[in-house]
Structures are given as structure tokens and as C-alpha cells.
């Protein structure tokens, strides 16, 4: 296997799992990462109160990337710093796309994008801000949270966004009363118990709080997955679980929730975004169908779109609508490109760690067993180019030293 060399774009959950599966077979891997470190949404998309889980996952990623059969290339974004055609032209044994879904799905009302960064925010940059804005080296976008925000979405990520808004609002309200609380600690305890400890009620704070709007009903919220082969009884049990998950979150963090609502327009006053025009829906065959004549206005101080993420387009990788053109989700094979495979969130569309890891494991093993060229590839030529990429970004090949020097607070 020493004549094989696999390129893996992205080194987080899916990328590091594929790296592990291949190096266990003695196959050399080159992990090409757009950031300093290969933690992806473990660091930038998983809210910071998941501290123990984040550290556990980052340690696992480190252990898999810091391997004698792995060449790491940081600060290199395919499609920007290195074109896909240049990468593809090197003649790899295989190329694995594990670069995740970093692009937010466009909001259904195009006009709202005029207000992005000024009253309107997409989920990915919003959570990134929350995770890092208190770091001394943070120089990104600054977001000011104001009371009565709106979140549009319906998955676990949208609940996380609602929690962020509620926690930040309560921290500010308590600070005005001379009470200092930690966001992470309050997330663990819950807002209700935190207020109880200070002999306060939600009404005492004078807050309206966050309003989460969802286009279907709660039993259709993707809060727990229904297996394709689920019996009717199992399916109903999972739908009941979805209701319990939402109720627990509402009770613990005190945000508002409305289902059967979808946006059809925006509200603008004096060139400022002040809310959404909504319409009620019926759920027919699990699809939201607008009910004519039910349009109504929902006012809010800011709006966060949490309706899902999709892969960033890369010139040279064929697309089908908003996704890479994958022939089979099971194998990850990309149409029109020989020995190129997608894995994890770029294929499944699910930000679930367990699902991404499982899918990457299956695809990596499928590739190793069925698609590596028998004669191998020109390893020396590829390694020469990889060395050029590493030198360009100042990486000397010592992953441990690099990780220690570039870890965040």
C-alpha cells in the first residue's frame, strides 16, 4: 500500500475518521484543511457550552491527524488557495471530500439579504461569533443581541440558536440588576433554575425573549431521526420523542415557539428590518402547504435564519442543485469524476457527529477495498507538491508543535 496516496479535503469528524480507517490499512493520507487546525464545526459550529464534548472530539481528531502516515496541509482552501483542477491533476489514488457544509441554505425571502449583518444573520456566522467573541484575538463580526429576536428553523441547531439568544439576553438583564452569571453555567442549569436561585421570575426581567418559528408541526421537526425501516409504532414513538425534546428545551430556556408558520415577506420601516410577514400552513404528506388568507406580521428586533447548511460550491466539482452531484449516498461517489468521493455532512446534510463519522467510515472502507488503483500512483511527485503547499503556509510538518502554537483560548 506504500504506492497509494489519498487526498482528504477537511480534517474534522468525517475527514479524521477516513484518515484513521485508511492509515490503519497502511495507506498514506494528505489532509488539506482550510483553517489552522482541523476541528471544523466541532470548534466553530458546536456551541461553546459543549466544552467536554468539544475537547474529547478535538483530542480524537488530533490523535488521528498526528500520524506518521499523514501529511497535514493547513490554511489551504480548495477552490481558493489551490484549485480543484490542480489537485485532481496530481493523480491521487482517491480524493475524499470531507469539507462539511459551511454555506447556510439561502433564506426563502431573497430581499432579506440586503440586511445581512444589520438585523439579519445566518446561523453559521452567528454561532461562530458566540463561540469566539470573548477571545482576546477575536477580530470577526460583532453582533449585538436585542430583545424579541426571531429564529426561523426547526432542527436541533435552531434550538441551539434560540438558547444562545435567551442566555445572552438573561445575562444582560441580570447584569443590569448587579447579578453576574456565566453563560455556560446557566446553560447547564437552565434559565428557570438560575432565576429561581436569585428569587426572580421571567416576568421580573421584562423580556419578551426569542420567538422560534417553524413551517411544519413539532412532530415533523428533525430533532430525532426516524430510520427508513421504522415500524409505524416506532415512527410514532420517535415523533412523540420530538415533542418531548422541544418541550424540555422550552421549559428550561423559556423561549417562545410557533409552528405551522413560514415567511412570505419582510417588514421594513425607515430602512430597518423590523420583522417578517408570515403565513400559516397545513402539513400535508409531511409538507408545509400555505393556507390562503392567513398572512400576518411577526415583529422582531433581529432575525436569525437556521434552516440548514449546504456545501460550499467548488469550481470543478459537479453540482446537483445545492449539493455535490453524488451518484450514491451509500458509496459517496461523485458523478463525472473518477475516484472522487463525498463523505459526512457534504453528502448526508446532517450535522450529527455520529452520523458523519459512520458515513465516513463506510465510504473510506468502500474506497480502500474497491477503488484504489492496483499499480499505485506517483507518490514522490505528489509529496513534492504537498511540501510546496506546506512551505507556503509556514507548516514544518510537526503537527503537535503546530497545534500547540495555534490553539485558541
Features:
5-stranded parallel sheet; 409 residues; FAD/NAD(P)-binding domain; Rossmann fold; alpha/beta
Helix fraction by DSSP (H/I, runs of at least 4): 25-40%
Number of strands: 18
Biggest pleated sheet: 5 strands, parallel
Overall body shape = globular
User: CATH superfamily of the largest domain, called what?
Assistant: FAD/NAD(P)-binding domain
Helix-strand category: alpha/beta
Q: What's the architecture of the largest domain in CATH terms?
A: 3-Layer(bba) Sandwich
> Hey, roughly how much beta strand do the residues contain?
15-25%
Average predicted confidence as pLDDT: 96
Q: Provide the CATH top-level class of the largest domain.
A: Alpha Beta
Describe the fold and architecture.
By secondary structure, the protein is of the alpha/beta class. The chain has 2 domains: 5-102 and 311-406, NAD(P)-binding Rossmann-like Domain (Rossmann fold), CATH 3.40.50; 105-308, FAD/NAD(P)-binding domain. 37% of the residues lie in helices and 19% in strands. The chain is built from 14 helices and 18 strands. The protein has helices at residues 13-23, 40-44, 51-65, 84-88, 123-132, 156-176, 183-189, 191-197, 202-205, 232-253, 345-348, 353-370, 379-392, 399-406, and strands spanning 5-9, 28-32, 70-73, 94-97, 103-104, 120-122, 150-153, 211-213, 256-258, 261-269, 272-284, 287-290, 296-299, 303-306, 309-310, 319-320, 323-324, 340-342. The chain has a 5-stranded parallel sheet with strand order 3-2-1-4-18, sandwiched between helices. Strands 6-14-7-8-9 form a 5-stranded parallel sheet. A hairpin with a 2-residue loop joins β16 and β17 (323-324). α1 (13-23) packs parallel to α3 (51-65). The longest helix is centred in the middle third of the chain and has 22 residues, at 232-253. It is globular, with a radius of gyration of 23 Å. The two termini are 40 Å apart. The model has no long low-confidence stretch (mean pLDDT 96).
Amino acid at each position: 500500500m506504500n504506492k497509494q496516496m489519498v487526498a482528504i479535503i477537511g480534517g474534522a469528524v468525517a475527514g479524521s475518521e477516513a484518515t484513521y480507517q485508511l492509515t490503519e490499512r497502511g495507506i498514506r493520507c494528505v489532509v488539506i484543511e482550510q483553517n489552522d487546525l482541523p476541528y471544523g464545526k466541532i470548534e466553530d459550529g458546536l456551541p461553546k457550552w459543549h466544552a467536554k464534548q468539544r475537547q474529547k472530539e478535538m483530542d480524537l481528531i488530533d490523535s488521528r491527524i498526528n500520524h506518521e502516515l499523514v501529511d497535514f496541509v493547513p490554511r489551504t482552501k480548495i477552490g481558493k488557495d489551490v484549485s480543484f483542477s490542480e489537485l485532481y491533476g496530481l493523480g491521487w489514488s482517491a480524493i475524499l471530500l470531507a469539507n462539511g457544509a459551511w454555506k447556510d441554505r439561502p433564506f426563502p425571502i431573497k430581499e432579506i439579504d440586503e440586511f445581512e449583518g444589520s438585523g439579519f444573520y445566518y446561523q453559521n456566522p452567528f454561532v461562530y461569533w458566540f463561540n469566539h467573541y470573548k477571545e482576546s484575538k477575536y477580530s470577526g463580526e460583532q453582533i449585538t443581541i436585542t430583545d424579541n429576536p426571531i429564529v426561523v428553523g426547526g432542527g436541533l441547531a435552531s434550538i441551539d440558536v434560540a438558547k444562545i439568544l435567551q442566555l445572552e439576553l438573561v445575562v444582560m438583564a441580570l447584569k443590569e440588576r448587579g447579578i453576574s452569571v456565566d453563560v455556560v453555567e446557566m446553560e447547564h442549569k437552565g434559565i428557570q433554575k438560575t432565576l429561581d436561585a436569585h428569587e426572580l421570575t421571567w416576568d421580573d426581567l421584562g423580556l419578551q425573549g426569542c420567538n422560534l418559528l417553524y413551517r411544519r408541526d413539532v412532530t415533523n421537526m428533525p430533532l430525532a431521526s426516524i430510520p427508513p425501516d421504522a415500524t409505524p409504532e416506532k415512527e410514532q414513538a420517535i415523533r412523540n420523542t420530538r415533542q418531548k425534546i422541544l418541550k424540555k428545551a422550552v421549559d428550561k430556556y423559556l423561549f417562545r415557539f410557533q409552528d405551522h408558520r413560514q415567511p412570505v415577506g419582510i417588514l421594513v420601516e425607515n430602512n430597518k428590518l423590523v420583522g417578517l410577514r408570515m403565513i400559516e400552513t397545513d402539513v400535508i404528506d409531511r409538507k408545509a402547504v400555505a393556507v390562503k388568507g392567513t398572512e400576518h406580521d411577526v415583529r422582531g428586533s433581529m432575525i436569525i435564519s437556521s434552516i440548514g447548511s449546504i456545501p460550499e460550491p467548488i469550481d470543478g466539482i459537479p453540482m446537483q442543485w445545492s449539493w455535490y452531484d453524488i451518484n450514491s449516498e451509500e458509496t459517496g461517489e461523485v458523478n463525472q469524476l473518477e475516484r472522487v468521493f463525498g463523505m459526512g455532512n457534504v453528502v448526508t446534510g446532517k450535522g450529527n457527529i455520529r452520523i458523519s463519522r459512520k458515513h465516513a467510515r463506510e465510504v473510506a472502507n468502500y474506497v480502500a477495498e474497491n477503488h484504489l488503483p492496483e499499480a499505485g500512483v506517483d507518490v514522490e511527485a505528489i509529496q513534492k507538491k504537498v511540501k510546496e503547499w506546506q512551505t507556503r503556509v509556514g507548516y514544518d510538518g510537526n503537527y503537535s508543535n503546530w497545534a500547540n502554537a495555534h490553539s485558541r483560548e
